[in-house]
Target: Acyl-coenzyme A oxidase
Amino acid sequence: MALRFPNLPPSGPQGSELLTHERSQTTFSVHEVTKYLYGEEFLERRERLLNIVENEPALEKETRFYDGRTERFAHALRKDHRMVQLSKEHKWSAEEFMMADSLVEEPGPFGLHRGMFIPTLVSQGNEEQHEKFLKPALRYEIIGCYAQTELGHGSNVQGIETTATYVPETDEFEIHTPYLTASKWWIGGLGVAANHAVVMARLITNGKDHGPHAFCLPIRSMEDHTLLPGVMAGDIGPKFGFNTTDNGCMWFDHYRVPRICLLSKYSSVKPGSGEYVNPPNSKLSYGTMVLIRASLVGAACLATSKAATIATRYSAIRRQFVDKDKPLKVDNKVVETPVLDYSMQQYRLFPIIAQAYAFVFTSKEMMRLYYLNIKHMAKGDFSLLADVHASSSGLKSLTTTMAAAAIEECRRACGGHGFSSFSGLPLLFQDYVPNVTWEGDNYMITQQTGRYLFKSFRDLVAKRTKGKMSAAAVTNPTLAYLNTYLENSNLKCPAQTASDFYNPEIQLAAFGHRAAYLVAQIVHALDVEKRTWNSMQVDIYNASVAHCQFILVQNFILGIRGEMEQPEGMAPVEKLSGSAKEAMKDLSDLFALHLIHKQPGEFLLSGYLDAKQVNLMGQAIMTLMETKIRKNAVGYVDAFGHSDYYLNSALGRYDGKVYEAYTEMATKEPINATQVVKGYEQYIKPFTNPHGKKGRSMAARL
Amino acid sequence: MALRFPNLPPSGPQGSELLTHERSQTTFSVHEVTKYLYGEEFLERRERLLNIVENEPALEKETRFYDGRTERFAHALRKDHRMVQLSKEHKWSAEEFMMADSLVEEPGPFGLHRGMFIPTLVSQGNEEQHEKFLKPALRYEIIGCYAQTELGHGSNVQGIETTATYVPETDEFEIHTPYLTASKWWIGGLGVAANHAVVMARLITNGKDHGPHAFCLPIRSMEDHTLLPGVMAGDIGPKFGFNTTDNGCMWFDHYRVPRICLLSKYSSVKPGSGEYVNPPNSKLSYGTMVLIRASLVGAACLATSKAATIATRYSAIRRQFVDKDKPLKVDNKVVETPVLDYSMQQYRLFPIIAQAYAFVFTSKEMMRLYYLNIKHMAKGDFSLLADVHASSSGLKSLTTTMAAAAIEECRRACGGHGFSSFSGLPLLFQDYVPNVTWEGDNYMITQQTGRYLFKSFRDLVAKRTKGKMSAAAVTNPTLAYLNTYLENSNLKCPAQTASDFYNPEIQLAAFGHRAAYLVAQIVHALDVEKRTWNSMQVDIYNASVAHCQFILVQNFILGIRGEMEQPEGMAPVEKLSGSAKEAMKDLSDLFALHLIHKQPGEFLLSGYLDAKQVNLMGQAIMTLMETKIRKNAVGYVDAFGHSDYYLNSALGRYDGKVYEAYTEMATKEPINATQVVKGYEQYIKPFTNPHGKKGRSMAARL
Model:
């Protein structure tokens, strides 16, 4: 007999009333902002796809809270299968598929087939390989995975140990796993789903090791899905998150495959002689990495905005204590204050809302630069590559770190209920947080940003020494802030009042000066003090963060003004109306000022800001939050336009019926399927009623 | 047919060799430090209990990685049952039980029975109630829980809505849940295990509401464990962590219980007349809260040291890239550098090791103060209470926040493998992180610390104005740093070289000055500028952090010198030998300096440190880590003395056989029980082999 929980109303004011009140205070048009962020075409597509996915039984989101890993994986396999069917039925484009999949948000066994296997075949396979592998892969006859990392080798691809030795006698490669550390590991989709794999292995021919190359291999039988002889593979077991994906491991035992398995668009091995043919330009391979890192900025935006929506809506409903200086009355009775009215809660949540908006604009800019760079590279122009690569690495690091922190902060800001799975925040964190590690560990990859910044700085110094550089000639924003610093490294911030800090130019100059200061310090330490690179890693990380904060602040400022460059061929953006622009500027101000105020150290160390200014900035923030942002808080998160299906959270519901939904979800907990728990007879009764006495306890005990 | 993964050796150098090498470099006696931290009696007890628990089948730790919530709960119920049996067999004391339970580390359904139900009966029940409830509870005939929080009421106990109305006619209380928001929620052990509950409800008699009081009620039948009429209860569903505990919810429908259910040691209701008898001193109830918060400092230490052990050992084994300035050679061949040699990794992990040590000493000091205060209060002396309450609140907030951050940082510092459940770190984080929310939300409770600091500051100013205060007369350390600041608020740090910062007095003075500066600023804002309390919450939080960092730094300095006060009646601590003391002082230096260097803002704002000094401090930290702490890193974590059973981590193993253990654990993943996954026929084959063709793929495809 399953338990039935009572159907009681919460005490007033009701969540729905509170959210209605919040929405009535919004000073801007939510729809206008939503449209500005995403564009109408995107919104129309999202709405259309949402209608399809939210009504599909295979794509329901409720059971994920209750199921163990085995059931969750089975669910994801069923979902991935259904998604492929839907995409065929509705003739989805790749973009539509990705968007629909991101609404369902259940990383499944076919995810890497689309995300890495197919793109690698496209970019590294030759025409024959496109026929043989790519075409059937697009039809899902082949299901693939991308096997790069090994048990002992993550970030350092050059260190992988799996070998592919060319055997001229049979014109084959022998794929082999020499050590346990060479086991392929973490490979999404390999655990049980894939029948093919792109395997990164050291290409050895004529006794020479040419380093890691990509091979496309069959690993499971097309007939019955059993492992092919010479291949062992399985699932690597449970993880913090991503448990709906079968991350797998794989070993090769002198496994022979024909020469065509070496993906040969760029490098190849000549039949018989085994002569190695070099790739034309190794820089070409940066493209995919930049794309993935740039796209992670967009994913960071989604994750941040989702968490912010849940926590902000719930904080407007959740009430705790009475603010003694300003007690809230409903029907002449003092009621507890919504936690969103407390300045601490505002200081925790509002900068996160602002962060999500900041990420929107930088995400757009990174995608524009990516496509521009691809276009340039196709013409043999590599001038943009270094900047785009550096920014995408640093921004991947900064935005994913900030997004993961934001989710956890939002979770904690929901109080105890943020710990319940039904808040939606635990699973969001667990599935999001690998972003800080994969595609380049967030500490590691900032060295790539650093290298670019130091080189830019040195080049600039050299040019200035030779008198080749005028301030006006510097158009690249990174070079511009470095140049300004070199003009005068003792510049002071001109702000004298709290409201001076609402000037975007003043904000941006502070970020530029601080980033340039850090770069200058490091270059001095490396070049003059001859410090080792290793000993400077912490400073390099900080410089990358500073540079990327500058980019985020700058794009936010330009983005709300409609002054960001548009991708070639796109119509210029329509400008925001006055009220919407003002509301956006409040967030842009908060984003910039909060970043400084929360960690003012480097701004003070650089000498650009002084103690009095940091204190004024604190006032500017508190005034902004209390008088302007507070009343728009729910409006801001509504403008992200996340549906209840997407949020999948009892606390983040649009209608505010949080406690009703939460209780309803608790009734479905499998443990509640019976009133008396299964282990009672064996593990409780021997203590509480060892002799099986009859008679109700009340009478007996009291 | 279950999969068998190959039995290969990792490529060299082996983990075991690397750890042996690390251990050979340690400059101090690991055993001496372990003994100093814990005392011999503690170590002997831990060893003895470990031998019992690690050999009990019901207490195994492997299945927790693979099981879903239902199975994990069943496991925990079995474990709790077995623990009670073991405690009876071995005649464990309450302390021994707690220690054994903490080795097993599986929060189960009987945890709150011991942790809250029994202690509440002890402290708030009268003699009759001890007979009726406490004695059977100690024998586990009664199994109880502690039902305070409600769906709509967490931190604010005064806001709870459940009512207990005295009915004079029958000399009973009627317990009732008026609204959904009054549902008891989050109650550990209530979901399925408890047959009794201590319920906090508003005591109403003769129409007057006397606020929340504790009642002890039967909720499930002693005969068959079914819910009693008038009571509905169940499990609240899955959570981020703590899924082995049945956190429950409960509703009362005009549920009648006799008057004896009101726990009446302090307040009571007279039979018939219903007259309410006041508690003698409301301050007495602070005792338990202080004890719990103080004990959470010890728990923060355990969690931090556990995570640090896993991440540090694994970082000595995990190798990535080659440090070009200083390549590592084994057998004349360049091998990848252990990540522990990178300064970024050191900057991430070494302060966490130091943090764990810092927590040891402050945890001891808080427990000493708790018992001293209890002794004083029993004599009617409440002079210590305010300080202990303020410190325990602020330290609970700071240390649990730091510990949660440390676990997650350690997890990420293990690279991708930190994401695997087998690292032990995901579950550690998930089960630990509620500490930041429960027993007083970490942002909320710092206001209590703030109130005490501001009052102390105002009192001190008043006394100084009246000329009643001489610097020598101030013995309380909080007052001492406030007084020093009032003597001269423009004091500057005297350090002029990097090595000056290795002077503990210089470190401590910086923390004192900064904390006093923040307190002075807030008192000025509140008292002179008349700012509202709400508008100052962020500053108040920062002041509490600053105060508690001062305490942590001070206790660390005194602790390694053997200069901390000992609990009354305890022998003075034996001093550390020179080499051990030096190794400890390195950590103490790092702890203090890293706290400043990572967030120097307030130290700079207070005017005590300048930019040049912060840069010198950076040098002091890097030198310390590279030349002194690096070689002791594994020794430091070994000295925590955590057994492999306790760590339960493939990466943190004492013997360094991490990849072997990890692979072995992966083979046990339930998904690997069959070679071809269950859903293959239904969800994969329709794409890959729709017509059931025969013949191996290799031949067909290639």
Summary: Chain B has a mean pLDDT of 94. The longest helix of chain B spans residues 343-378. The domain at 287-567+578-638 of chain B is CATH 1.20.140.10 (Butyryl-CoA Dehydrogenase, subunit A; domain 3). Chain B has 22 helices and 13 strands.
